[in-house]
Amino acid sequence: MSSTVIAIIVGMVAIYGGIFYFMQLKKKKQAEMFLNTDFRAEMNNASTYKNNFLNGELSFITKQMEGKSIDAFNYANINYTTKDSIKDGLKDSLKGMATLGTVRFHTVQTPKYLILSGADLHLFDTDTDGEISNHFVFDPARLQASSIAEIPLEGMIKAFAKQKGDNIKAYRISLATDGSPIELIMFSAL
After folding, report:
1. CB 3.0 to 4.6 Å from 125: which of 51, 134, 155, 176, for a disulfide?
2. Residue 29: inside a domain, yes or no?
3. What is the pLDDT of residues 99-135, one digit of tens each?
């Protein structure tokens, strides 16, 4: 082998070794931070954290709730499968052909916000502009007919969970309606 090939191989090994080293260092720091966290103090600050979110980037939730109490909140997404993705791709292509190719369409999945207020669960559906397009309220009777289950982290769900951090769990929520249930995927972190 020539010396340039050997130099390239050594360089690649050094780059991968450096990346691996920094990833391990980051994991070690996160583990130390987790071990050094005073969870009792953090629990005492939970209402402060909640109010910071509700008065900041999620202030639209407070407006939409119109003075009702907000006990907890999170967001979820529709259970979007590969089949759904293919179906939306075909639908977008057909719409594009209908405009003779002058317009390109792309279906976008928007977040759904879940808000617990007393015994009721509110579901806000957003449009592509980030505005609330639907507001559903599930009373205790509907919630008893609904279900929640932890799901394994595989495929796209694993990728989404990794974006939120380590030790994140995913849940499938099935909310009972008059018709077919609303199926959502929610993670254990915002």
Report:
1. 134
2. no
3. 777 777 766 677 888 888 888 999 888 877 767 878 8
Distance CA 24, CA 165 (A): 15
Domain count, the chain: 1
> Do the Cβ atoms of 77 and 109 come closer than 8 Å?
yes
Q: Are strands 120-126 and 72-78 parallel, antiparallel or unpaired?
A: unpaired
Is 12 part of any domain?
Answer: no
- Domain range holding 91? 64-187
Q: What is the CATH number of the domain that holds 100?
A: 2.30.29
What b/e readout covers 101-119, taking b as 16+ CB neighbours within 10 angstroms?
A: eeeeeeeeeeebbbbeeee
Residue 133 counted as domain residue: yes
Rounded to an integer, what distance in angstroms lies between the CA atom of residue 63 and that of residue 102? Answer: 39
Q: What's the rounded Cα separation, in Å, for the pair 167 and 14?
A: 30
Distance between CA atoms of residues 118 and 39, nearest Å: 25
